[in-house]
Amino acid sequence: MTKPIVVTDTSFEAEVENAEGVVLVDFWATWCGPCKMIAPIVEQIASENDGKLTVGKLDVDANGQTAMKYGVMSIPTLILFKNGQPVERLVGYQHKERLLAKIKPHLTQLA
To answer: Which residue numbers are catalytic?
Structure first.
């Protein structure tokens, strides 16, 4: 069972921008209610797509530089990166089915 990795301002380039394949980053904060609601869904997606998708979590309070770089103004924001480039952005709480509808097409298009 794969858990999301912790991503920071320091590790973001190596873990996400230079990563090959698909990486979903959950921009969140400890005080954010909707972030707490979506966290178990993000963990399920990480577990169910082990080997096809890397999932990272970035605490915006502790890592404001990266959040600012990607224009994260509301949380939770989930950004899907493919070979280091952002390809999808979902803002606010999302049902699992909606998240998967945005993620799955990118998993099948891997070269």
So the answer is: 32, 35
